[in-house]
């Protein structure tokens, strides 16, 4: 399945629009990961454990969006937007959402 942030796919005109599709993933923060991230913030460097969780959450949200598009008969999702939101008391959870338009090209 083609997934793109652009409003179309070069050389492949949209034949049919199926509508908006989304994928959302919410991940909880881990106490030990938070502690190590805080230490890295003090001494500098990248918080690799957070980057790994963000990457995994993003891929899961995109996969869920692709699955929903495929169930409609789409073979592409255009105009994809990724959003990240902090949720919960004290920012204890992170939501990653992917939104786009399911189409057949």
Number of helices: 2
Oligomeric organization of the protein chains: single chain
**Overall average residue pLDDT:** 85
Beta-sheet strand percentage?
35-45%
The number of distinct β-strands equals 4
- In N-to-C order, the SSE pattern is EEHHEE
Helix content: 25-40%
- Terminal Cα span: 10 Å
Indicate the CATH class.
Alpha Beta
**Uncertain spans:** none
For the biggest β-sheet, the strand order reads 1-3-4-2
CATH architecture: 2-Layer Sandwich
What does this protein look like?
The protein has a single domain (2-104), classed as Hypothetical protein apc22750. Chain B (Translation Initiation Factor IF3). Helices cover 36% and strands 37% of the residues. It has helices at 31-43, 48-72, and strands spanning 2-3, 16-28, 76-87, 93-104. A 4-stranded mixed beta sheet has the order 1-3-4-2. A hairpin with a 5-residue loop joins strand 3 (76-87) and strand 4. The longest helix is centred in the middle third of the chain and has 25 residues, at 48-72. The mean pLDDT is 85.
List the helices and strands and how they pair.
Elements: E1 2-3, E2 16-28, H1 31-43, H2 48-72, E3 76-87, E4 93-104
Parallel strand pairs: 1-3
Antiparallel strand pairs: 2-4, 3-4
Family: Belongs to the UPF0145 family.
Protein name: UPF0145 protein KK488_13360
Pfam family, one: YbjQ_1
Quick tags:
105 residues; alpha+beta; Translation Initiation Factor IF3; four-stranded mixed sheet; elongated
């Amino acid at each position: 399945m083609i997934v793109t942030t652009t409003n179309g796919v070069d050389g492949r005109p949209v034949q049919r629009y199926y509508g908006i599709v989304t994928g959302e993933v919410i991940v909880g923060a881990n106490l030990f990961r938070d502690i190590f991230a805080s230490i890295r913030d003090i001494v500098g460097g990248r918080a690799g454990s957070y980057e790994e969780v963000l990457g995994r959450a993003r891929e899961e949200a995109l996969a869920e969006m692709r699955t929903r598009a495929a169930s409609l008969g789409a073979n592409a999702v255009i105009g994809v937007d990724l959003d990240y939101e902090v949720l919960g008391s004290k920012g204890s959870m992170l939501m990653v959402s992917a939104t786009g338009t399911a189409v057949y090209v």
